[in-house]
């Protein structure tokens, strides 16, 4: 749109305010600020693509419809990440579904374990018989976190701002989004003397019993439970090898060439030259026969042995200098090095002969 850096920052700041507007009044205020910036191309683009669907992406408008307070895709991305860790890339269709069902079964078991813990384990953070104890034992942890905040705010309210609220329903954002009891409902019930702890205020979706029934009930069926019967009728599919890239082929060929080089380095000079000549002929054949494989060339040489003259193999004469162990020549035995020197490198004094010793004693 040809905006400069400073203008781009201003526009992004206003658009961020618009995205996080909490109600219609705040949205209109931020939208008016965008108009006052005077960026005609940006305003035209916004009015064409984003303003008509503002109820689908503005945070305040999203909460006014039934989204169960879900405003991000974090849960879906987490599930996708778990599937990627189990399912192999470029796998066959059958193995893909087997791995997918295994992953879903593991996730189902994990959620089932959490549901059992919610029923078996009970917290004693609140006084028994209190309002907090009632809702914390009936609701799931996620729902109780929302209701606890509303209950806290209802006790410090002086009057109710929602004119359409009553003891069982309200027009506020939280109630429209989740159907959970809000601060306005609690305030109205306190004002009218109605009991706050009422099961009719709790949606069945957010109860612990419903969560346990969904994962551990008798009618609960998971796709993995019938996986064996599903795959019993599927014929085994042939495994197809993945096509290698040029770089992978090069690496594989280099590994074989290195092995050949290591073997040839231990050969004698005559055998080494013969092996090199054979490799050179093989190299020429590979370069001249691009459409044929190396296996075809070998078979053609086996089927037509008369075309090439047979070269008699000469038995090389083995001499002492050609004898090697692990690629090294045998060292000739002799007097060890350093026999005439001391530990610090000085030459040792020669011992006197027996005759000279006798003469010295006689004198």
TrEMBL record:
Please provide, alphabetically and separated by semicolons, the GO molecular function terms listed in this UniProt record: zinc ion binding
InterPro entries assigned: Zinc_finger_SWIM, Znf_SWIM
- The organism's place on the tree of life at top rank: Eukaryota
Residues in SWIM-type domain copies: 155-193
Swiss-Prot/TrEMBL keywords: Metal-binding, Zinc, Zinc-finger
Q: What is the protein name given in its UniProt record?
A: SWIM-type domain-containing protein
Source organism of the structure: Cacopsylla melanoneura
